[in-house]
Amino acid sequence: MSDAEANAPLILTLALDGPAQGHFDRLRRAHFPLERNFLSAHLTLFHHLPLGGGRDRRGHCGDQPGPGPLALAVTGPILLGRGVAYALDAPELVALRGRLAERWWPWLGAQDRQRFRPM
Questions:
Q1: What is the pLDDT of residues 39-94, one digit of tens each?
Q2: I need a surface site. Which of 33, 49, 67, 88 has the fewest CB within 10 A?
Q3: Is residue 59 in a domain?
Q4: Rounded to whole angstroms, how far apart are CA atoms 87 and 72?
């Protein structure tokens, strides 16, 4: 692994099931600014988990059982200034993300220490 790879941040996103991924990708292609549309639709859990310093944060996930599929309910659009997201009602996801944030707190930046609102 190169030094750049070792110090690159890990962005952790939630995987969506196939039908949901397809639906939100279609909406993203139709309504998201083309010049900024270089990713698939996604739900970011953490924006910048550092992997440097010989500590691989990915290993911290492996010692917990996965929660399996989580129920997410879309509750409406949220204007973000430069775009729109969907607000989600997802108590299980909020709890899971909270447990991970507690575990990774020493490594979290300001953005990832803020209250998590799934969207």
A1: 899 999 999 987 654 455 555 555 555 678 899 999 999 988 877 889 999 999 99
A2: 33
A3: yes
A4: 10
